[in-house]
Design a protein that fits this description.
Elements (H helix, E strand, L loop, with lengths): L1 E6 L4 E6 L8 E5 L10 H7 L4 E5 L16 H15 L5 E5 L1 H12 L6 E5 L7 H4 L3 H16 L5 E4 L2 E8 L2 E5 L1 H16 L1
Parallel strand pairs: 3-4, 3-5, 5-6
Antiparallel strand pairs: 1-2, 2-4, 7-8, 8-9
Helix pairs in contact: 2-3, 5-6
């Protein structure tokens, strides 16, 4: 992999690109928040030679520092698009981990039809509309399942990293006890009410 630099007015973006072959598909690896290109070392080791590979240090991450923190997600997609254009990367598969998955989804929305696919690693859907396809009842049931799973099984008491938690179920729904449970419910309330 060869390291290259893309200059912007806010700072330089460092990326690595393998030897490309016109007959191979592109894999573009996008690490998550606080991660750098090393996150995908093993994957690139495996795929290089079978696919054309690209990985970047997102702005303000890894080698792409210093970088002024005066940008939005949409601008990250434009930087990525410009780098792809510069390097002749046509219709890649985007492989995004956590924040990298959000960047990939924003890229797909801003530049429709420019990617062949998207692999999400520990990223939730960026758009709320994804959840509303499930329907209101299914959404509420799914949120409660996720909450119960994250807090523990009914009747179970334990220590979560954010504090003590006790969970139990009642005929009229679930009851959660503990500060962490309250934070989750508070964060999910708009979703539950919208459904």
């Amino acid at each position: 992999m060869t390291e290259k630099i893309f200059h912007t007015k806010l700072g330089d973006i460092h990326y690595r690109i393998g030897k490309s072959s016109g007959d191979r598909l592109w894999l573009a690896f996008l690490p998550g928040l606080t991660a750098d290109f090393h996150l995908f070392d093993k994957q690139i080791e495996y795929f290089e030679g079978r696919y054309n590979c690209f990985v970047w240090d997102a702005p303000a991450h890894g080698s792409s520092r210093p970088f002024k923190l005066e940008f939005y997600m949409d601008e990250l997609t434009v930087y990525l698009y410009d780098i792809f254009q510069r390097e002749g990367i046509d219709r890649p598969f985007l492989v995004g981990q956590s924040m990298g998955g959000y960047i990939a989804q924003a890229y797909i929305k801003r530049f429709p039809g420019t990617v062949q696919g998207f692999v999400s690693i520990d990223s939730a859907p960026l758009s709320r509309s994804y959840f509303f396809r499930l329907g209101a009842g299914a959404l509420k049931a799914r949120l409660l399942d996720v909450l119960l799973h994250s807090l523990g099984a009914a009747g179970e008491a334990g220590q979560h990293r954010h504090g003590p938690v006790r969970v139990w179920a009642r005929a009229d729904g679930a009851h959660y006890e503990g500060i962490y449970a309250q934070r989750i419910l508070q964060a999910c309330r708009p979703w539950i009410q919208a459904a």
